[in-house]
TrEMBL record:
It is a multi-pass membrane protein. Belongs to the pex2/pex10/pex12 family. The keyword Zinc-finger applies. This is Peroxisome assembly protein 12. PANTHER family: PEROXISOME ASSEMBLY PROTEIN 12, PEROXISOME ASSEMBLY PROTEIN 12 PEROXIN-12.
Amino acid sequence: MAVYAAHLTRTLQGTPSIFQIAAQEALGATVKPALKRLAEYLAVVNPQRYAWCERWYDELYLLLDFCLQYHYLKHYASSFSECFYGLLRVPISPSNEFHSGVRLPELLEKGSLLLLVLVPYIKDKVEQIIEKWREDNEDGKLGKSTSNQARKAAIKLYSIAHFVLEAAKFIQLARYLTGRTLSPTLDFALLGLTVKEAPPPEPEEYCWSDLFKSLWAGQIGDQAVRWKNKCPVCLQPWKVPTVLPVSGFVFCYGCVSRHVRANGTCPVTKLPTTERTLVRLYLSG
């Protein structure tokens, strides 16, 4: 089903849309809770074997997240969720250009890994402690001793800090949308990074082996079958499938938006079109 959800327009020329920014953040935030449900299920089904998974879940996820984010930062200069939506981390300062390929400079890579993995882990642990103290305070378990008074003060201080942080995130995003900064989040601003759309992968070239395989399968000249459910531009499975109404072809959002913005035509039919006509597809199954 196609929906004109704000037409996937961009806030600034050459910058990712707010949809991509919000979508990748939402994806990143859903992975940990989803895996936790799995750990809890395993602990219930077989507590003798898997109870430790639930007990040490935060630490297990820390290790998994570290490996996952390190891989994507090293090979794609992006986090897992950013790469999923075709985004790329780029230094704002010209002096911090990539050393080789698309890999980030080592300092920015380590800083990104720290903010992506360790900081959220510490934040979750602090929240668990504060939540426990808050419950004790509501139950009247925190008395008037110095330590309990300190816990009450920590609860209030954390609430204030949380409010200030959320407000700062909103202000940073608003400044990004209005073109006053190139960093969409506080983490990016701290590291001096911005985000851009990753270049599409190089399409695979036909070779003699493809010819013989096609002859054997009876698919000579049948590129429609070869590239079924794939973007006509990058020849890869769709990332954020988007249809261009003027021609009816379905592309990756990043691929078609770049081409339309630069050429004003459909990449396949060359019919004139604009970026405002792009329609996001929500595919089921």
